[in-house]
């Protein structure tokens, strides 16, 4: 009899967990509070408490080839960076292709997840749900995969700013933000310079009278485009760059990368310069923020200090008068109210998880928290690999180390991350993208061997090692192998180019002169090599004839 696994949520994590459960011969039962799939990426006109919220104009900041599921490439005609509505369509295609929706109970809320009395021997869970009619149901499951997300409970830190109660304007959180219509002709301050803060500030600055962006630490800002207009992540996230980053001095790599970025726009001049080095923290992905600063539509400010009626006071002593609205892009708190309070929570409120996935305190590792993680790379491949690992642990095909070892690894990771992130909650979430995925791939047995590929398929190994770190690599071998993985890797750049081919581009007629033709170049090159060899042997002959001279062998 197949083991039954509860999947909490039908967003991107929930969908891939259902699919992977089916791959491993498990029986998934998914509970979704809303009436549709998509989670975070399902746009709602009005914010709903307890649910994620996105803005109308949101576009992905990772490209389609890097963020797709490993055995389901995105359609070739999709743009490389997609509007949220198009990404949702991809999820619908994925769910339809693998027939996932029949495993989902919509408008059903998980009220509680608790260990059964015999948990130490069975690893089973009592799960209580409430359906759309308010009826309560009790279930027994062999495993639980929590996919309810981390962007549902916004943090609005008004208490940190003296005088906020005297403010005559309105304070928002970016979770509530949908578009800039409400800010037209107004003076607005945006607090926080993460990806959401940058997007919101840029969009508001196009219609507001004046927009200010307040930041405590600053940020390195990069665009989505790399050399020749190619997607940045496809050129930057490769196994080769990862190896070079590990081998070369970090200070040198930071200096080179920062110098290159500052050639585009000087971060110090633009008021963006952060306290940290480029590789120490995640960058802000934004194509338009520097341009809005250049136009004067967006003004950088230091950290917000407090309110004085309609005025805002900043840490550098400056004051901005007659502010109409403040938008806080200050993050979210993680809440899993249905989980047992006994699960490991750190001293600063962060959830203690082995490899950001498994609570180490459980006797049987039949529960995993999906996607509670941050990395310098797309989240979807991470969640898929987490799902592949977690389902194999639940099925008894993979095993975790002893609790002492897991706690030691957690503490080691925390100490390393605290060097870059002073906030313990932020530090706990961070992983190194390629190292993390390769670790899980080793645990599952799907990490491609560069040496074996070199002997068996030298064309493919160049794509895997030198090319973009696309998720298809983890379907080349081992459990879950996909026959189309090799072809997907070989054709990935074709899918990048496809959406650009909307117009025939006429090239000016150019004729290669006879001397520049490939055949002539080959002929001339061969002749030069033959001449050099002839001269070399001629020299050897002369040396051999000279008395007392030794001829090199």
UniProtKB/TrEMBL annotation:
Cofactor(s) needed for function: FAD
Keyword Flavoprotein attached: yes
Topology within the bilayer: Single-pass membrane protein
Gene Ontology cellular-component annotations: endoplasmic reticulum membrane
Matching Pfam families: FMO-like
EC number: 1.-.-.-
Protein function: Broad spectrum monooxygenase that catalyzes the oxygenation of a wide variety of nitrogen- and sulfur-containing compounds including xenobiotics. Catalyzes the S-oxygenation of hypotaurine to produce taurine, an organic osmolyte involved in cell volume regulation as well as a variety of cytoprotective and developmental processes.
Top-rank EC class of the record's enzyme: oxidoreductase
Name of this chain's protein: Flavin-containing monooxygenase
InterPro entries the UniProt entry points to: FAD/NAD-bd_sf, Flavin_mOase, Flavin_mOase-like, Flavin_mOase_1, FMO-like
UniProt key word Flavoprotein: yes
Keywords, ordered alphabetically: Endoplasmic reticulum, FAD, Flavoprotein, Membrane, Monooxygenase, NADP, Oxidoreductase, Transmembrane, Transmembrane helix
Annotated family: Belongs to the FMO family.
Organism expressing this protein natively: Myripristis murdjan
Reactions listed under catalytic activity: hypotaurine + NADPH + O2 + H(+) = taurine + NADP(+) + H2O; hypotaurine + NADH + O2 + H(+) = taurine + NAD(+) + H2O; trimethylamine + NADPH + O2 = trimethylamine N-oxide + NADP(+) + H2O; N,N-dimethylaniline + NADPH + O2 + H(+) = N,N-dimethylaniline N-oxide + NADP(+) + H2O
Molecular function terms from GO: flavin adenine dinucleotide binding; N,N-dimethylaniline monooxygenase activity; NADP binding; trimethylamine monooxygenase activity
